[in-house]
Write a structure and sequence with these properties.
Elements: E1 2-3, H1 31-41, H2 51-62, H3 67-77, H4 81-90, E2 102-107, H5 110-114, H6 117-128, E3 134-135, E4 141-146, E5 158-160, E6 163-165, H7 173-178
Parallel strand pairs: 2-4
Antiparallel strand pairs: 1-3, 2-5, 5-6
Helix pairs in contact: 1-2, 2-3, 3-4
Length: 181
């Protein structure tokens, strides 16, 4: 089981730890990744603005963004690695640690709270034997709370990968999860 909430590479002030973003963590981007990032870079007046797209490019190919990828992206964009790390850690859609094949995001907003998301969360935790922020032992699912999924009139709601499920009840969880192998 992997704990997604664990951020060894971030210090107490929320900054990249001095020993985490080192040249030893550098890896080589594929030609396709480098070309795609270069292409995105030219869409923006300031290369920093391309950071999120560059991170998404690497994550799409590799599943998550390593410390080495932060340096490689910064090198292509010509900006400090700390700027790329800041963007990567700000956006919850960018994974800085390995995640499961399927990402489950359940809404824990006030509206879904009123509509009973707690039962859905408990059913997910029971069925998967993990807590929020963790990945199942087999690497199949990662469970992440999300502030809002934009379906406030249809809560409780959750997403599995890109699929939105609304009016979810605890008893729906088992059949929903069976759809994602």
């Amino acid at each position: 089981m992997h704990d997604y909430n664990k951020h060894d590479h971030i210090d107490a002030q929320g900054q990249p730890a001095a020993d985490s973003l080192t040249k030893e963590n550098v890896f080589v981007l594929s030609d396709a990744e480098r070309n795609a990032i270069e292409h995105e870079k030219h869409h923006y007046e300031d290369a920093r603005a391309a950071s999120i797209e560059a991170l998404k490019i690497v994550q799409k190919e590799r599943g998550w963004v390593t410390d080495g990828a932060i340096y490689a992206i910064a090198d292509v964009l010509g900006i400090p690695a700390s700027d790329v790390e800041g963007v990567a850690t700000f956006y919850s859609q960018i994974f800085r640690q390995p995640v499961g094949r399927h990402i489950i995001r359940y809404c824990d907003s006030v509206v879904c709270h009123i509509n009973g998301y707690q039962g859905v969360q408990a059913a997910l935790e029971r069925k998967l034997s993990i807590k929020p922020g963790q990945t199942t032992f087999d690497g199949r699912f990662t469970l992440l709370p999300t502030c809002c999924l934009g379906n406030c009139d249809k809560g409780p709601s959750m997403m599995i990968d890109e699929d939105t499920h609304t009016h979810v009840k605890p008893e729906d969880i088992e059949s929903l999860l069976e759809q994602y192998q």
